[in-house]
Amino acid sequence: MTNSSLNISIKNVTKTYDQFHALKDISLEINSGEFMTLLGPSGSGKTTLLMVLAGFTNPDYGSVKFGEEEVILKPPHLRGIGMVFQNYALFPHMSVEQNVGYPQKLRGVSVTETKRSVEEALETVKLAGLGHRGVDELSGGQRQRVALARAIVFKPKILLMDEPLSALDKKLREEMQIELRQLHDTLNMTTVYVTHDQKEALTMSDRITVINDGELMQLGTPNEIYEYPSNNFIADFIGESSLLPVIVRNGVVHFDGAEIKLSTSPKTDGEFFLVVRPEKVFITIENSDDVNKFEGVLLDSIFQGESQLLVVKLKSMSEDEVVLRVRVPNGSVTQAVLPSAGQQLIIGLRVADSYLVS
Amino acid sequence: MSGIIAEKLNEQGLQRVASKERLTFFGLTLPYLLIVVALIIIPVGWLFYLSFIGRDGSFSFENYERMTKSRAYIRIFITTFKISILTTLICAVIGYPLSYFMSQLSRKWANICMIGVLIPFWTSLLVRTYAWLVLLQKKGLLNNIAIDIGLISEPIKFVHNTTGTLIGMVHIMLPFLILPLYANMRSIDRDCLKAASSLGATPTRAFWTVFFPLSVPGLLAGLLIVFVLCLGFYVTPAILGGGRVIMAAMKISSNIELYFSWGAASALGVVLLIVTSVILFIASKLVSMDQLGNRSAK
Q1: Considering the domain boundaries, does residue B40 fall inside one?
Q2: CA A298 from centre of chain
Q3: Rounded (10°) angle between helices B42-51 and B262-286
Q4: Which residues from chain B sit within 8 angstroms of residue A166, using beta carbons?
């Protein structure tokens, strides 16, 4: 089942509660058929933005267009969106079938056509045959699927999801991430997905909008956001990273007196952070020009199953303690080779992987 | 170790602990059981016994026969049910919108409204009933004001009739409807209404297809409590009805005080008890009993 979808155009959306700026002048273009994730910590404004799209929150000013049509003044029931809520929001007094058929009933769709579309939607979310069940007879994962079926049964052009997987356990959540993404690819609805889980965002999205304190911080593909975070907040929030304070003078980067080489030299002087991802650093002995080196002492070595995490305190002249984390994948070296706590180490970071944020 | 099967570790000791626990629990329930027997089982049994004792002190059905034959009794039953049903319905008509309004307010304002509901609830029944008498009587506040501003020329008869009884009873019963209904409405997941709305339901449609069905358990609980309390109500109909509205409880009282007929009074009490039990039984079939509490919507 394919579907026409609509692009969403958000302009200057601003929302203030008393003194609190929930959304500060957000402008954002979401392409037709795109899977866009709004990512941010709790209280960042991502859900407020979703509620503005759905029509449950009115901004102070700003514009929201679905396709060419301005919808900001339209009440929620006229916006024609499918929405999946964090706590499922299934109607407890209706069966699965009645829940999924609810939007069709509202639209005056005939009984036979409703039955057919409900079956189709239940099949899409892999719940075929469970239509007669009561909502309270379902597991958390199944409830989420019913909520999804109910949101897509009338083939909306836009699908909004508010942290739909946060109540599920980790394993099921990871399965559902893949499934939701596949579902999006089949249905091709423009999807706006809100989450605070950066890994979920990276796994599912075409593009990610990072929001913090009501501000749009960065917009990009998962790869761009992860590899080239635009500031230290995003570098810290997305994935694991250690931020090393560095100083740029005359285009040359210094950390604790030593020079750090970059693939492209920075244009402005000042204080920056070097983003060091645990999986990009390694223990090294050889001298090579395309590797930046850091000396340190191993504080702790933690076995995490798929990898070993080394916590290394860098030798530093400043009083602040600088700690790097190094991830050694399980199977890449034998356990015997791993250093033990207290041992002196040299950590390498490739020049190509060395990236500064403000 | 003995034989092929190893001795089960500490089995006997653990069984002793378990039986001791059971004994403790029984011991803790015992005072409650004694109270129930002393204050409920024995008096109700005594009530049953008395209802079968005739005027001459021997076993007879005359107390029950009188109820089916005497027109006065039939009239009393009709009045009792009429007043109870009307009071319950008026309470629903006033209480449902009020509860809905309160459930939509923020917690802070809802609590302030709740105080407005509870203060009369905590005030003496007698005081409130006489207050209505003062307000509604022929030369009462309401009639005086209405005449002074020229709304009416002759005072309206508000009390010593069914109208007065209903006004007083609705006022007294309203909190019993609002409390369970409001608690139920508060527990309805607001996201369900948002979901309905996002799926295309107008506010009216969302109310009737989602909110109202989910509030029915609370409404039924409230209706039931009000109706059952009304059936046995005494003070308010006695004062505001002015002797013209005679309900079952008043007949019980007059049987004892005027005619010293404990048998007739007991029989009436038994009938009320049975009617109430039947209503509760039917209600429990309609809504599961735990839903009559507060956990309707998940």
Answers
A1: no
A2: 32
A3: 120
A4: none
Report the C-alpha gap between A64 and A54 in whole angstroms. Answer: 10
Interatomic CA distance for residues B60 and B51, integer angstroms: 9
Q: Find the CATH number of the domain harbouring B238.
A: 1.10.3720.10
Domain map (residue ranges) of chain A = 8-227, 240-357
Structural domains in chain B (count): 1
- Superfamily of segment(s) A8-227: P-loop containing nucleotide triphosphate hydrolases (3.40.50.300)
Class of residue A285 by CB neighbours under 10 A (exposed 0-12, middle 13-18, buried 19+): exposed
**Positive or negative: CA dihedral B183, B189, B190, B196:** negative
d(CA B123, CA A185): 65
Q: B173 φ, ψ to 5°?
A: -85, -20
Of the candidates B201, B205, B214, the beta carbon closest to that of A92 is on B214
What whole-number distance in Å separates Cα of residue A179 and Cα of residue A125?
9
Name, in order, each residue with C-beta under 8 angstroms of A91's C-beta and a sequence gap of 6 or more.
Answer: A98, A99, A102, A135, B192, B195, B196, B210, B214
B64 belongs to a structural domain: no
Over residues A140-151, mean pLDDT: 92
How many residues comprise chain B? Answer: 298
- Whether residue B200 and residue A154 make contact (CB cut-off 8 A), yes or no, is yes
For A106, the closest of B189, B205, B214 (CB atoms) is B205
**pTM of the complete model:** 0.80
Q: What is the dihedral of CA A115, A118, A123, A128, to 10 degrees?
A: -70
- Cβ distance of A85 and B197 shorter than 8 Å: no
Look over chain B and give the mean of its residue pLDDT values, rounded to a whole number.
Answer: 87
CA triple A178-A180-A181, angle to 5 deg? 65
- How many Cα atoms sit within 13 Å of A252 on the Cβ side? 6
Does B8 score more than 90 pLDDT?
no
Residue B170 belongs to some domain of the structure? yes
In angstroms, the CA A91 to CA B210 distance is 7
Q: Does B8 reside within a domain?
A: no
Q: Which residue has the tokens 């999801």?
A: A161
Encoded tokens for B65: 């026969």
For residue B206, give its domain range.
71-292
Tell me which amino acid residue B26 is. F
- Arithmetic mean of pLDDT over chain A: 88
Each residue of A310-340: pLDDT tens digit? 898 888 777 678 888 889 888 877 766 778 8
What is the spatial distance between Cα B260 and Cα B283, in angstroms, rounded to a whole number?
36
Q: What are the chain A neighbours of B217 within 8 Å (beta carbons)?
A: none
Cβ–Cβ gap B198/A82 under 8 Å: yes
- Provide the pLDDT for residue B296: 39
For the stretch A3-61, pLDDT in tens is: 478 999 999 999 999 888 899 999 999 999 999 999 999 889 999 999 999 999 999 99
Architecture of the domain spanning A240-357: Beta Barrel (2.40)
Contacts of A274 (CB under 8 A, 6+ apart): A243, A244, A246, A253, A255, A260, A354, A355, A356
pLDDT for B293: 43
Residue found by looking up tokens 């329930």 in the block = B29
For residues A322 and A344, what is the distance between their CA atoms, to the nearest angstrom? 15
Q: What is the pLDDT of residues A101-119, one digit of tens each?
A: 999 999 999 999 999 999 9
- HSE toward the beta carbon, residue B150, CA cutoff 13 A: 0
Q: Among candidates A287, A269, A294, which has minimal Cα distance to A354?
A: A294
